[in-house]
Write a structure and sequence with these properties.
Elements: H1 10-20, H2 23-30, H3 34-48, E1 53-55, E2 60-62, H4 64-93, E3 96-100, H5 102-109, H6 113-119, E4 125-129, E5 143-148, E6 155-168, H7 171-174, E7 191-194, H8 198-206, E8 219-220, H9 223-231, E9 236-240, H10 241-250, E10 261-272, H11 278-293
Parallel strand pairs: 3-4, 3-5, 7-8, 7-9
Antiparallel strand pairs: 1-2, 5-10, 6-9, 6-10
């Protein structure tokens, strides 16, 4: 449907001039010149084909068509103003939506969220725990925490934290038939793998271990499930340092060797290039502060 609209820049000039009965006072309100207001009103009159004002020596007077049109304009501006206020209020009250890998959400982010809410009681966070690569142009997602190399086309990314990995296991394994006295003793235990088997191969090479088959053992596509398998005594897992600290502190898991392998990937804060959002900035800054505090 094609809309029949007047010159939109002229509408505020007409309404202000009608309210003040003066081009000069309308110009002062709108921070333009007297001549600009006069030209806008003249353009509107020419477009409508009617005279809206009688120009008196010291003031303006609306003509009958001008009074009729003023009511239409005021109703339209009021409706637009109310709709704008409602939308802005909704956006201000709307939670910020963050998508994050489930293991990172469960083992690092959620245990710290209470500190964010205490510092920012007016901001609500909706967590979307998912493995999916979000399309910001099609989904209602404000920010993501991704695992990768830091480069995503068309998106801004900021390093949140690097990753080091090391073997961890249940105390039952350390007290069992084949305790992990040296890295070489891994040959007697089941190796648990996170998505691929490359991690174990790289760690064994770093530790200078030979004779351990890095190909054996089950694969898991979720680091959270991998760590739970280790807690339950299924085998020895390579754990991401930042995600396993509480398990090591509580004794649910044990780190048998002080050998950490730096990972080629890291956790990044990722978001589309757009205008600043104060709520997102507050959450992003808080994430970075927490990550910095979390370093040994």
């Amino acid at each position: 449907m094609r809309l029949e609209l007047p010159p939109l820049n002229a509408i505020p000039a007409f309404e202000a001039a009608a309210r003040h009965k003066s081009f000069t006072r309308a110009a002062e309100e709108l921070f333009v010149t007297h001549g600009a207001i006069s030209r806008q009103v003249k353009n509107l009159e020419e477009y409508l084909g009617v005279q809206l004002f009688r120009r008196l020596p010291r003031s303006l007077e609306l003509t009958p068509p001008g009074r009729t049109y003023l009511e239409v304009v005021r109703q339209s501006l009021t409706s637009l103003s109310d709709g704008t206020k409602d939308l802005r209020r909704h956006q201000q009250d709307k939670p910020i939506t963050i998508t994050v890998i489930p293991s990172f959400a469960v083992r690092w982010l959620v245990p710290r969220l209470d500190r964010f809410y205490r510092a920012h009681p007016g901001i609500e966070v909706l967590l979307n725990a998912s493995f999916s690569m979000v399309d910001f142009s099609k989904e209602d997602i404000d920010m993501a925490i991704r695992l990768g190399g830091g480069n995503w086309d068309g998106l801004e990314s900021e390093l949140l934290m690097t990753i080091d990995i090391t073997p961890v296991c249940s105390p039952t394994i350390m007290g069992g038939e084949h305790p992990l006295s040296t890295p070489g003793s891994l040959c007697h235990n089941t190796l648990l793998h996170d998505t691929t088997r490359d991690g174990w191969r790289a760690w064994l090479r770093l530790a200078g271990v030979e004779g351990v088959d890095h190909q054996r053992g089950p694969l898991f596509n979720d680091h959270n499930v991998l760590l739970q398998a280790a807690i339950d005594g299924l085998g020895v897992a390579l754990a991401r340092k930042r995600l396993v600290q509480s398990d090591l502190a509580s004794g649910r898991l044990i780190q048998p060797f002080a050998v950490w392998l730096p990972s080629e990937v890291a956790y990044y804060i990722v978001y589309p290039k757009r205008r600043t959002n104060p709520k997102l900035d507050a959450f992003k800054n808080w994430l970075i502060e927490e990550a910095n505090l979390d370093q040994d």
